[in-house]
């Protein structure tokens, strides 16, 4: 497709998310913001909260632009963990200097600015809360979501995403608040094929989310593409059996996690600072995109570890169905074909699909362990250890954790 044809596609006024999905279109989501911006020096690992929207807005804006250029149809507001209770949890942020409203509002303004540059949709996002983990109940938990809804409605986002929930109960509460706005709602859980952390099966989770009002359901984060698609397959089966209709969505990790337990990659010893050896190649992400499409998923994106080149890989794999390539593909020939321009003959010999499709990448690390033994603390909502507080974790509290971990 010509550059001009690509430009026309990018400049079209976007239709609504449900209008597009109902018409059978493929929606490509964006990738992971907290991990990408942490690596760039704008997000603090631990709280993973999005103060960067206020402190370093240009960094957030640039990452949005890179995902847009890679082909993303959705600019999700950088409001992951942006509820007031999370922003102030464990001594993370001084609310006198920066309010939750400011963080959420700036995220909306940045996302809309970039979305308008390429005809993308803006999705306001909410995620799990310390209030729920502390056992404060439905009323208080939903109040945290409602604060963010006010900002999203002021900024006229196109639809809402409730994501990263380990417990379907909290996801239902978030979905109800989102649905009350009248906007389309996508709800995703960070669970695998074994269900949520309170023992609700993956299929039943999907049924409950649709009954709570979700128009789109699926899985995001915590697991790699293979495990995520296995979980979504269970969701699809359960929805079909219940006679319920909903669009399917996947936004997995870009890290291989065959050795995780029910809690996902946060239990891996490498989390979060030594995950690089697990990064999926662009070709593996192309395979994920194809498998997701064949499963019937039509909202396909990524979460932690997904960089713009991964999203470009999704777009390139699904270009025959979508009918166009993203601007980011102007510098990337399919299956390494650009390597035919290389000066070295042995590198030119790699300019073919069969080479990259059959490659088994090595870690390059002498005596590298192939798999890890996950931490299995078994702590989830309802445990005393998960009661949250606004003060910072003390040295004595850390010593207790160190002795428990061994």
From TrEMBL:
So where does Zn(2+) get bound?
A: 221, 303-304
InterPro entries in the record? BHMT, BHMT-like, HCY_dom, HCY_dom_sf
Please name the PANTHER family in this protein's record. BETAINE--HOMOCYSTEINE S-METHYLTRANSFERASE 1 (PTHR46120), HCY-BINDING DOMAIN-CONTAINING PROTEIN (PTHR46120:SF1)
Could you identify this protein by its name?
Answer: Betaine--homocysteine S-methyltransferase 1-like isoform X2
Hcy-binding domain sequence ranges: 15-318
- Top-level division of the source organism's lineage: Eukaryota
Q: Name what cofactor the protein needs.
A: Zn(2+)
Q: In which pathway does it act?
A: Amino-acid biosynthesis; L-methionine biosynthesis via de novo pathway; L-methionine from L-homocysteine (BhmT route): step 1/1
Q: Which UniProt keywords apply?
A: Metal-binding, Methyltransferase, Transferase, Zinc
* Encoding gene, per UniProt annotation: LOC100378727
A Pfam family of this chain: S-methyl_trans
The residues forming the signal peptide are none
């Amino acid at each position: 497709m010509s550059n001009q044809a690509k430009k026309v596609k990018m400049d079209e006024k976007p239709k609504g998310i449900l209008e597009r999905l109902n018409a059978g279109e493929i929606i490509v989501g964006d990738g992971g913001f907290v991990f990408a911006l942490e690596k760039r020096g704008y997000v603090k690992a631990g709280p993973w909260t999005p103060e960067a929207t206020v402190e370093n807005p240009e960094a957030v804006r640039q990452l949005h632009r890179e995902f847009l250029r890679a082909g993303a149809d959705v600019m999700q507001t950088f409001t992951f963990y942006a509820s007031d209770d999370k922003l102030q949890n464990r001594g993370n942020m001084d609310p006198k200097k920066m309010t939750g409203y400011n963080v959420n509002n700036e995220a909306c303004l940045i996302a809309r600015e970039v979305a308008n540059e390429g005809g993308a949709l803006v999705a306001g996002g909410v995620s799990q809360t310390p209030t729920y983990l502390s056992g404060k109940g439905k009323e208080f938990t939903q109040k945290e979501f409602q604060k963010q809804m006010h900002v999203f409605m002021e900024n006229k986002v196109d639809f809402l995403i409730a994501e990263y929930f380990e417990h379907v109960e909290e996801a239902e509460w978030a979905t109800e608040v989102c649905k009350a706005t009248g906007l389309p709602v996508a709800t995703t859980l960070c669970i695998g094929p074994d269900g949520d952390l309170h023992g609700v099966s993956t299929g039943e989770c999907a049924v409950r989310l649709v009954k709570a009002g979700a128009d789109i359901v699926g899985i995001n984060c915590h697991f790699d593409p293979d495990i995520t698609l296995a979980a979504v397959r269970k969701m699809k089966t359960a929805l079909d059996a219940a006679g319920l209709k909903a669009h399917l969505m996947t936004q997995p990790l870009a890290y291989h996690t065959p050795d995780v337990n029910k809690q996902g990659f946060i239990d891996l010893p490498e989390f979060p600072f030594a995950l690089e050896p697990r990064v999926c190649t662009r070709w593996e992400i192309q395979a994920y995109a194809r498998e997701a499409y064949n499963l019937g998923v039509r909202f396909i994106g990524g979460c932690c570890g997904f960089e713009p080149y991964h999203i470009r890989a999704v777009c390139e794999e699904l270009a025959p169905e979508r009918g166009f390539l993203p601007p980011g593909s102007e510098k990337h020939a399919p299956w390494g074909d650009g390597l035919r321009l290389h000066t070295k003959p042995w590198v030119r010999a790699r300019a073919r699909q069969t080479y990259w499709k059959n490659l088994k990448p090595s870690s390059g690390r002498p005596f590298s362990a192939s798999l890890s033994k996950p931490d299995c603390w078994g702590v989830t909502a309802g445990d005393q250890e998960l009661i949250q507080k606004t003060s910072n974790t003390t040295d004595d509290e850390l010593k207790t954790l160190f002795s428990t971990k061994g």
